[in-house]
């Protein structure tokens, strides 16, 4: 019922489905003897450098690494990339996925990190600070609000190599802590 | 009487300016005045489709809000759609929900990409879907101005796409308010885009292209169609195109809108559209030394450089998509560059039998 000076309208919005976040997993063990997955992205050379330094440190700690690189979102290559992530998730004990430093690459980093969680593996998505909220939003939107997120400085691009390696050293302990790696 | 409509209802002042203010305050407007989504108007929209109000078209990223036909109709009313145009909105939504269109990536990217809707079929005139002079903006046809806007409002209000929040789009683009235009099929010397994509001439078809903007080209100096097409191809292959960003060039299409005068000139040399695409593809490349060393390394790592040191814009001729539209003033072409990681999708328009 409306008065002459009012009308009834329907609102155009909807709320996304509210779900409890899917469980996240932690290692609760040392890295020694573990297979650690590292997922890099063709687009981000800075992250490749950081991931390669982390691989060296993981090797030094007695772990092996299984490294994959993605680069496509659709088409045969996108399908192949997601299939690679799926198979990689089966093989590793836990995994680190990056880099979220643009909109769609953050979305797909979250998506690939969630694939690890779907295999019940400890998973960490690495993003730059500018994209932290976006990563947490996307994880929530696809039902994995508990996904662990490591936040690196922004921007990483155009920093000198030595600075990137310093960032790799600085954030490595935090990455392990988030994943539940024990000393 | 019990309404079939279930979306949230509120009472507002019966005043256009007040409604506009409310849409801004509630953040469900797009910054442009809207029409009131009354039940009468929504039901008229629903009557134009074969779908029930609670039929789910899909879950729209980035928030994966569930897009029912009713909610789409509410947004279409707000956009100013007439009921006969509403099935085109639904077809557009179906097209962008095909996974290969990559709404997951495109609604969240930093890139200025947005659905650009190209309409083929017999209803273009009836619905005022512009395909002649000023078809990409300014002609003011109701269909063109409202169908794209309705889809944009759906992405905002159902998908939750908000600039600077869920969408990380750095610049945006005018098409973000909605972009929809037709192909001037009657002036095209080649089969229409929809026909080439497997649809029949009597079908209304909406094709969604993940376009990064309108990229203008102009020429007054070339009489030879091959010379002009050579320059167009080189312009399409601009070095900072997304297609060169590091992918393999396998995905995505570049739309080339050709005015009818130029289309006739080009068709004299290339009667088959496939031969036109082949010629454009053969020339849409840049020499590797255009790029600095860092880019060169990436392009080489993705096998983008051929034995002659050329880097092609796309892998295949069919990824360059000519369409005919625009005014008869000639002299200009417009490219709609690709995001790259998105594949154009088409959907047929389904109307109610009544």
Instruction: Supply the CATH class of chain A.
Output: Alpha Beta
- Main sheet summary of chain A: 5 strands, parallel
Percent range for helical residues of chain A?
40-55%
Strand content bin of chain B: 15-25%
Number of contiguous helices of chain B: 11
* Total strands of chain A: 6
Can you offer a commentary on this structure?
The complex is a heterodimer of chains A (183) and B (354). Chain A has 183 residues and is of the alpha/beta class. Chain A has a single domain, classed as Glycerate kinase, domain 1 (Rossmann fold), CATH 3.40.50.10350. Chain A has five helices and six strands, in the order E-E-H-E-H-E-H-E-H-E-H. Chain A has helices at 45-60, 75-91, 103-118, 132-141, 161-179, and strands at residues 6-10, 35-41, 64-70, 94-100, 123-128, 148-152. Chain A has a five-stranded parallel beta sheet, sandwiched between helices. In chain A, helix 1 (45-60) packs across helix 5 and helix 3 (103-118) packs across helix 4 (132-141). The model of chain A has no long low-confidence stretch (mean pLDDT 95). Chain B is an alpha+beta fold and 354 residues long. Chain B folds into two domains: 16-210, no CATH class; 215-336, no CATH class. A four-stranded mixed beta sheet of chain B has the order 5-4-6-13. A four-stranded mixed beta sheet of chain B has the order 7-12-8-11. In chain B, helix 2 crosses helix 3, helix 3 (69-79) packs across helix 6 (142-157) and helix 4 (86-96) packs across helix 6 (142-157). The radius of gyration of chain B is 21 Å and the shape is globular. The two termini of chain B are 23 Å apart. The mean pLDDT of chain B is 96. Chains A and B meet through strand 1, helix 2, helix 3 and helix 4 of A and strand 1, strand 3, helix 3, helix 5 and helix 11 of B. Strand 1 (6-10) of chain A pairs antiparallel with strand 1 of chain B.
């Amino acid at each position: 019922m409306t008065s002459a000076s009012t009308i009834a309208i329907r609102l155009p919005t909807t709320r996304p489905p509210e779900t409890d976040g899917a469980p996240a997993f932690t290692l609760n063990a040392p890295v020694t003897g573990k297979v650690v997955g590292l997922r890099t992205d063709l687009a981000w050379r800075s992250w490749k450098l950081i991931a390669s330094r982390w691989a060296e440190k993981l090797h030094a700690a007695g772990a092996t690494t299984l490294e994959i690189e993605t680069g496509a979102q659709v088409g045969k290559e996108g399908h192949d990339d997601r299939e690679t992530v799926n198979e990689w998730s089966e093989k590793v004990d836990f995994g680190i996925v990056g880099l979220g430093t643009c909109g769609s690459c953050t979305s797909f980093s979250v998506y690939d990190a969630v694939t690890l969680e779907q295999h019940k593996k400890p998973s960490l998505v690495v993003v730059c600070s500018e994209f932290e909220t976006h990563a947490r939003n996307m994880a929530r939107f696809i039902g994995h609000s508990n996904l662990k997120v490591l936040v690196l400085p922004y921007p990483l691009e155009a920093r000198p190599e030595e600075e990137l390696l310093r960032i790799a050293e600085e954030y490595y302990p935090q990455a392990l802590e988030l994943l539940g790696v024990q000393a | 009487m019990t309404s079939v409509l279930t979306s949230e209802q509120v009472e507002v002042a019966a005043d256009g300016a007040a409604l506009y203010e409310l849409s801004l305050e509630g953040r469900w407007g797009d910054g442009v005045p809207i029409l009131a989504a009354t039940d009468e108007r929504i039901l008229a929209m629903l009557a134009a489709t074969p779908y029930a109000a609670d039929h789910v078209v899909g879950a729209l990223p980035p928030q994966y809000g569930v897009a029912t036909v009713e909610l789409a109709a509410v947004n279409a009313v707000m956009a100013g759609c007439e009921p006969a145009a509403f099935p085109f909105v639904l077809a557009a939504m179906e097209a962008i929900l095909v996974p290969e269109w990559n709404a997951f990536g495109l609604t969240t990217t930093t890139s200025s990409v947005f659905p650009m809707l190209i309409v083929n079929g017999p209803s273009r005139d009836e619905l005022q879907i512009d395909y002649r002079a000023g078809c990409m903006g300014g002609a003011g046809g109701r269909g063109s101005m409202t169908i794209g806007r309705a889809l944009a409002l759906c992405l905002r209000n159902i998908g939750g796409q908000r600039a600077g929040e869920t969408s990380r789009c750095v610049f945006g683009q005018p098409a973000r308010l909605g972009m929809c235009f037709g192909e001037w099929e009657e002036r095209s010397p080649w089969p229409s885009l929809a026909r080439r994509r497997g649809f029949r001439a009597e079908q209304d078809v909406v094709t969604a292209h993940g376009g990064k903007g309108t990229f203008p080209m102009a020429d007054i100096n070339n009489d030879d169609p091959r010379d002009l097409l050579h320059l167009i191809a080189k312009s399409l292959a601009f070095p900072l195109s997304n297609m060169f960003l590091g992918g393999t060039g396998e995905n995505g299409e570049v739309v080339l809108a050709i005015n009818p005068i130029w289309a006739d000139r080009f068709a004299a040399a290339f009667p088959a559209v496939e031969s036109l695409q082949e010629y454009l593809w053969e020339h849409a490349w840049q020499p590797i030394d255009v790029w600095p060393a860092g880019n060169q390394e990436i392009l080489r790592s993705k096998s983008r450089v051929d034995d002659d040191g050329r880097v092609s814009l796309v892998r295949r001729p069919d990824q360059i998509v000519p369409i005919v539209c625009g005014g008869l003033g000639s002299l200009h072409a417009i490219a709609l560059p690709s995001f790259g990681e998105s594949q154009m999708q088409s959907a047929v328009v389904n109307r109610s039998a009544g």
